[in-house]
DNA sequence: ATGTCGGGCACAGCCCGA
């Protein structure tokens, strides 16, 4: 099985990139984040014509997630069960397909909106931990993948790109990521590349790509049985060199 | 602060978010 995740930074700007990429890679599932459109604006048909079933959790202007699937699936959740927000944002999409629970997530960045904005990020992480705990307690094979907006360690961001106060590296954010690992989930990239410096995002500004001033913020966390079956983890850096690229590149796991 | 994107608003450049 092949599962990919890609923060696309507007599907309307980059649906051709996705089409071409799908033709090349043929994943069983593709998780998309930051589609930045409402459900009815998503180009569902072009992916259906390619043999994918499509489920979209969109909203106006910001955020938004979607899953493209070659296999039948059941929708589980469009909001994390324990997340009680007055104005829920489109940041989560969970399905079950081929016996695996597939959780596509786009964590709040946490750097805007002051302390309240940061707390929203921490609440999302808490709800994610609760969801992971629930699925693992019920022996449900599961994968949590997407844009976590967390650099787990200092190796996961280029020197001098972020301050210690940045929400992507703050201890509270990182602690949430570690809690997911302590529950028994495996950081798929680190299972295969324990020590290499690898990034999944390069800012549009300051020639970040040319200077390799990147971040590792797109992750795939695997429940134990899936982790045992993990065969490969790929960061498709070539996408960052294309015309009008997203600032994130696809990550791909095979199991 | 720098800097570059995308979307919204509303129709021309700003503003927000990343």
Automatic annotation (TrEMBL):
<keyword id="KW-0460">Magnesium</keyword>
<dbReference type="GO" id="GO:0004519">
    <property type="term" value="F:endonuclease activity"/>
</dbReference>
<feature type="binding site">
    <location>
        <position position="149"/>
    </location>
    <ligand>
        <name>Mg(2+)</name>
    </ligand>
</feature>
<dbReference type="Pfam" id="PF03372">
    <property type="entry name" value="Exo_endo_phos"/>
</dbReference>
<feature type="site" description="Transition state stabilizer">
    <location>
        <position position="149"/>
    </location>
</feature>
<dbReference type="InterPro" id="IPR020848">
    <property type="entry name" value="AP_endonuclease_F1_CS"/>
</dbReference>
<dbReference type="GO" id="GO:0006281">
    <property type="term" value="P:DNA repair"/>
</dbReference>
<feature type="site" description="Interaction with DNA substrate">
    <location>
        <position position="248"/>
    </location>
</feature>
<keyword id="KW-0269">Exonuclease</keyword>
<feature type="binding site">
    <location>
        <position position="7"/>
    </location>
    <ligand>
        <name>Mg(2+)</name>
    </ligand>
</feature>
<feature type="active site">
    <location>
        <position position="106"/>
    </location>
</feature>
<feature type="binding site">
    <location>
        <position position="34"/>
    </location>
    <ligand>
        <name>Mg(2+)</name>
    </ligand>
</feature>
<dbReference type="InterPro" id="IPR036691">
    <property type="entry name" value="Endo/exonu/phosph_ase_sf"/>
</dbReference>
<dbReference type="InterPro" id="IPR005135">
    <property type="entry name" value="Endo/exonuclease/phosphatase"/>
</dbReference>
<dbReference type="InterPro" id="IPR037493">
    <property type="entry name" value="ExoIII-like"/>
</dbReference>
<keyword id="KW-0378">Hydrolase</keyword>
<protein>
    <submittedName>
        <fullName>Exonuclease III (XthA)</fullName>
    </submittedName>
</protein>
<keyword id="KW-0479">Metal-binding</keyword>
<dbReference type="InterPro" id="IPR004808">
    <property type="entry name" value="AP_endonuc_1"/>
</dbReference>
<keyword id="KW-0464">Manganese</keyword>
<feature type="binding site">
    <location>
        <position position="247"/>
    </location>
    <ligand>
        <name>Mg(2+)</name>
    </ligand>
</feature>
<feature type="site" description="Important for catalytic activity">
    <location>
        <position position="218"/>
    </location>
</feature>
<comment type="similarity">
    <text>Belongs to the DNA repair enzymes AP/ExoA family.</text>
</comment>
<dbReference type="GO" id="GO:0046872">
    <property type="term" value="F:metal ion binding"/>
</dbReference>
<feature type="binding site">
    <location>
        <position position="147"/>
    </location>
    <ligand>
        <name>Mg(2+)</name>
    </ligand>
</feature>
<feature type="active site" description="Proton acceptor">
    <location>
        <position position="248"/>
    </location>
</feature>
<keyword id="KW-0540">Nuclease</keyword>
<dbReference type="GO" id="GO:0003677">
    <property type="term" value="F:DNA binding"/>
</dbReference>
<dbReference type="GO" id="GO:0008311">
    <property type="term" value="F:double-stranded DNA 3'-5' DNA exonuclease activity"/>
</dbReference>
<feature type="domain" description="Endonuclease/exonuclease/phosphatase">
    <location>
        <begin position="4"/>
        <end position="248"/>
    </location>
</feature>
<feature type="active site" description="Proton donor/acceptor">
    <location>
        <position position="147"/>
    </location>
</feature>
<feature type="binding site">
    <location>
        <position position="248"/>
    </location>
    <ligand>
        <name>Mg(2+)</name>
    </ligand>
</feature>
């Amino acid at each position: 099985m092949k599962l990919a995740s890609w923060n696309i930074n507007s599907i309307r700007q980059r649906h051709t990139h996705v089409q071409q990429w799908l033709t090349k890679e043929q994943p069983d599932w593709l998780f998309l984040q930051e589609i930045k459109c409402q459900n009815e604006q998503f180009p569902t048909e072009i992916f259906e014509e390619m043999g994918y079933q499509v489920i979209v959790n969109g909203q106006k202007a910001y955020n938004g997630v979607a899953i493209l699937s070659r296999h039948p699936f059941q929708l589980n959740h469009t909001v994390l069960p324990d997340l009680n927000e007055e104005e829920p944002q489109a940041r989560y999409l969970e399905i079950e397909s081929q016996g695996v629970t597939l959780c596509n997530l786009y964590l709040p960045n946490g750097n805007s909106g002051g302390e309240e904005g940061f707390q929203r990020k921490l609440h999302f992480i808490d709800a994610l931990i609760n969801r992971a705990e629930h699925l693992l307690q019920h022996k449900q094979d599961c994968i949590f993948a997407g844009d976590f907006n967390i650099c787990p360690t200092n190796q996961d961001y280029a020197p001098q790109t972020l301050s210690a106060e940045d929400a992507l590296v703050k201890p509270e954010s990182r602690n949430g990521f570690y809690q997911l690992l302590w529950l028994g989930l495996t950081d798929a990239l680190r299972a295969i590349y324990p020590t290499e410096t690898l990034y999944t995002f390069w800012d549009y500004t300051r020639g970040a790509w040319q200077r390799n001033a990147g971040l590792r913020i797109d992750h795939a966390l695997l429940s134990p049985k899936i982790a045992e079956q993990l065969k490969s983890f790929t960061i498709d850096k070539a996408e960052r060199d294309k015309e009008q690229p997203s600032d994130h590149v696809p990550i791909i796991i095979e199991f």
